[in-house]
Give the backbone structure.
Amino acid sequence: MAAAVAIRDALQRMGFSANAALAVTNEQGIDDMDELGVLTDTEVENLCKVVRRPGGANTAGVANPGHAVSLRAENNLKLACYS
């Protein structure tokens, strides 16, 4: 649990919104720093795409709108995966 909180904090410092960071850790299961280290640029792009437009419907039956992820946040995540 503490690792997931640390990942969310790190994602927010990279430029992700709180909701987007929560989606990465809870919905996509990226909740450990080691998991970030093995992502390629393509996988980071796909992860951000899924957070932006996850598909499916929310509990009200409306299409899930996803969360905004800026290009800066995506590029910062790519850089973090190489450190």
Q: What stands out?
A: The CA atoms of residues 9 and 21 lie 8 Å apart. The helical segments are 2-14, 18-27, 33-37, 41-52, 71-81. The two ends are 23 Å apart (CA to CA).
